[in-house]
Amino acid sequence: MPTTQPTMVRGNLRAWRNAVFVVFTLSGLGFASWVSRIPAVRDGMHLSTATIGLMLFGLAFGSIAGLATAPNYMARMGTRNGLRYSLLAMAVATVLLGLATEVWGSFPASAGILVLFGFFYSITDVVMNVEGAEVERANGRTLLPMMHAFFSFGTIIGAGLGAVAAMNSLPVAIHFTLVGVAIAAAGSWSVRYLPGPGIKEPVVLPTTPQVVTGVGRHTHLGARLREILKMAAEPQLFFLGLMVVGMAFVEGSANDWLPIAAVDGHGFDNAGGALVYGTFVAAMTVGRAGGGPLIDRLGRRHTLTIMGALGFIGILIFILTDSQWTAFAAAGLWGLGGSLGFPIGVSAAADHPTQSARRVSIISIFGYMAFLVGPPVLGVVGEHLGILNAFYLVALMLLLSLVVAPRAMRAPPR
Predict the structure, then answer these.
(1) pLDDT, tens digit, 9 for 90 and up, residues 229-273
(2) Max CA-CA distance within the chain?
(3) Where are the beta strands (DSSP E) in 215-346?
(4) For 150, phi and psi rounded to 5 degrees?
(5) Under a CB-based contact definition with an 8 Å cutoff, are residues 95 and 177 in contact?
(6) What pLDDT, in 10s, does the model give residues 183-232?
(7) Cα(392)–Cα(386) distance, rounded to whole angstroms?
(8) What is the pTM of this model?
(9) Contacts of 141 (CB under 8 A, 6+ apart)
């Protein structure tokens, strides 16, 4: 049986919680900084919609590799050191991304650095969600929606700074360098308040066979994958993952394509596109900030149904409207509708007496694969049908989440 580090005595719960809030904020800041400047990158590098989609596949590829690596990374590093180093690496990748897209003007270099950025971004997301679930359990009340509200707060900051940078024609390289420095500095400061070393629970079951290599004793990759798939095939966890896939697709599609859709589909300039995206993330923040009390009052299933219906209406209005002001309102409804799907999924996955961290990691893998793979697919569809028409696929994925939500919300086996 593999040994699992015992739960350590947690220090100041408030300092611990606030440190995780900061990490979520920095993750949102880094991602939104990239998204808010995609129109500027496209114009500066003279790229088509399909080519932008191909570039985003680099982000998706790196993120999937990070998702596959995150459990063992966390098992080796723990959550405190794991977040310290992943945030630092994400900051470096942000700086390099600015150089590749503007100074070098190289599509291969930009796509390659997006692989690096996506790798450490997804590792950060998995580890911070596992740590967030631990904070929630230690406090005994629903906190993950508020943590994701801080992620959205970070995206508001990133979108706002991106809009200001676009309006003032600030070079992307300078913008991304400043963001990278901020992430590195604030991340190094915040992780000091995490009780260390934190969770070191890998997403493998105790029966996983081991092999001995020349450099040490490691879990066989194929066996690990089989154990993860076996655990994910548990009916309740599978439907929970399917629900999260749909909701993450709703959020990720807006994160990558809403600014460009506002520019190409509704006639906004680049700064206006960033502001439409800012409206979306502001609504996400409001939904997540108020989500905890709403969930405690109505329950996860009913809350998800109400918010999802608002999001479905918002997506359809955004596709069909001819008014820029209505597009702002629709983006807000879209943001509200997608605000609670992922945090509800993570919180539900954590409701297990012995496998909380493993289940949270698996649900994070479900969510971030959809979050990062879906948007490049929309780029390919949008090249042929138009990006607004491609958003009908987003509406269908949202309906899928609402259909499977009743089965997903059932209590896990004890």
Answers:
(1) 666 667 777 888 889 888 888 888 887 788 889 988 888 887 888
(2) 65
(3) 216-219
(4) -70, -35
(5) yes
(6) 999 999 999 888 866 555 544 333 333 333 333 434 454 555 566 666 66
(7) 11
(8) 0.71
(9) 292, 296
